[in-house]
């Protein structure tokens, strides 16, 4: 099977699980009109960091980010990898807590939250222990075949009750880029930056071409727009702003007479649960790479269960959804540092490496 296909599927699937929950309300809160502007700005920011990241990795053929940094400078490795490690650990806590909360609200209200959190930890932990990255890459293709079609079906049918008048004005009357001063916009960038670090860990295990990642990014763009605009076009901006999960609410109101299922949102939720578990398993694997390659070689059989226990305890200490939302907000500064500093520092390291290589070739 083509590695480009596996990596592209992994990239798309890991991001799909991040789009439809918190992202719509964050974008809607950041501006009152022309919501395409924060969506497009976030997407361009995503493309920019990906372009820099991939260019930096191209200087080191077949090496992952941990080996690159450790071979160049331990100080630089700590400067990049320690914040990234803390960021990924924070991501797992927030992802497990958020996915569990959404699943509890939507379809499993009688199920204790701790059981759902344990499910979101144990299944990804099992996937990492028994599949490693090769198994996860192959699993991404299977998940694409099983769940992408239902998600596309739900996205298509969610246009059922829209009113195109809510799409206007296309350009704000004043303060076109005022959303850049709103904290909700930077919080929404989680949907763009949540999984980009993975690309730096893959070169040692799977060769892929940059155009495969760019193609995957373009595939995701309609999802970002639909997640934001379908609630706005259906209910209007003011009403949508009052909802906690606007896109899930809209999907729950869809009526299809010929469909045997009463609630179409089950298709979306089950797909997003699968994508969410896959995203958590990928983040687990990246943490394993940093700890085992950068700090100490510990057996995954001990490390993964230990991580699960620590994350589970931290998740239990989060009392409610309001606290979870605050943690997403507090995570913004670290997220931006990792998203901006990691590609730039790696690119500078790549330039220096390329210059030294040219000098050495001239001497020989």
Give a brief description.
By secondary structure, the protein is an all-alpha fold. Helix content is 76%, strand content 0%.
* Cα distance spanning the termini: 40 Å
Name the beta content range: under 5%
- Unreliable sequence segments: none
Q: Give me the strand/helix succession.
A: HHHHHHHHHHHHHHHH
Structural class: mainly alpha
Mean pLDDT, all residues? 87
Count of DSSP H/I helices: 16
Radius of gyration: 21 Å
Number of strands: 0
- Give the overall form: globular
Main sheet specs: none
Helix content: over 70%
Describe this structure in words.
- The chain is mainly α and 364 residues long.
- The protein is built from 16 helices and no strands.
- It has helices at residues 3-19, 23-30, 36-58, 65-72, 74-106, 113-157, 183-188, 190-193, 198-201, 210-235, 237-240, 246-252, 265-295, 300-316, 321-330, 332-363.
- Helix 4 (65-72) runs antiparallel to helix 5, helix 5 (74-106) runs antiparallel to helix 16 (332-363) and helix 6 packs across helix 14 (300-316).
- The longest helix is centred in the middle third of the chain and has 45 residues, at 113-157.
- It is globular.
- The protein starts with a helix and ends with a helix.
- The mean pLDDT is 87.
């Amino acid at each position: 099977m083509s590695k480009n296909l596996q990596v592209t599927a992994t990239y798309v699937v890991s991001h799909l699980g991040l789009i439809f929950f918190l992202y719509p309300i964050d974008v809607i809160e950041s501006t009152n009109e022309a919501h395409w502007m924060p969506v497009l700005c976030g997407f361009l920011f995503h493309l920019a960091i990906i372009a820099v990241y991939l260019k930096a990795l191209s200087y080191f053929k077949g090496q992952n980010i941990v080996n690159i940094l450790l071979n160049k400078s331990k100080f630089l490795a700590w400067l990049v990898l320690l914040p990234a490690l803390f960021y990924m650990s924070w991501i797992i806590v927030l992802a497990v807590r958020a996915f569990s909360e959404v699943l509890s609200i939507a379809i499993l209200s009688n199920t204790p939250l701790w059981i759902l959190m344990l499910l979101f930890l144990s299944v990804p932990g099992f996937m990492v222990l028994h599949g490693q990255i090769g198994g996860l890459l192959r699993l991404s293709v299977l998940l694409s075949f099983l769940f992408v079609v239902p998600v596309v079906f739900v996205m298509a049918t969610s246009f059922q009750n829209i009113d195109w008048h809510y799409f206007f004005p296309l350009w704000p009357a004043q303060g076109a880029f005022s959303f850049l001063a709103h904290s909700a916009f930077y919080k929404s960038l989680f949907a763009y930056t949540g999984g980009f670090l993975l690309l730096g860990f893959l070169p040692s295990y799977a060769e892929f071409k940059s155009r495969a990642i760019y193609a995957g990014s373009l595939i995701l763009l309609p999802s970002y727009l639909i997640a934001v605009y379908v609630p706005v076009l259906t209910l209007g901006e003011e009403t949508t702003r009052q909802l906690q999960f606007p896109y899930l609410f809209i999907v729950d109101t869809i009526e299809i007479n010929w469909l045997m299922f009463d609630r179409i949102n089950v298709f979306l939720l089950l797909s997003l649960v699968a994508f969410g578990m896959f995203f958590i398993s990928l983040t687990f694997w990246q943490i394993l790479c940093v700890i085992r390659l950068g700090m100490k070689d510990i057996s995954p059989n001990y490390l993964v269960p230990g991580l699960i226990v620590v994350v589970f305890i931290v998740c239990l200490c989060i009392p409610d959804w309001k606290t979870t939302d605050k943690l997403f907000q507090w995570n913004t500064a670290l997220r931006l540092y990792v998203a901006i500093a990691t590609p730039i520092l790696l690119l500078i390291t790549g330039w220096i490496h390329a210059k030294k290589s040219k000098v050495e070739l001239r001497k020989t």
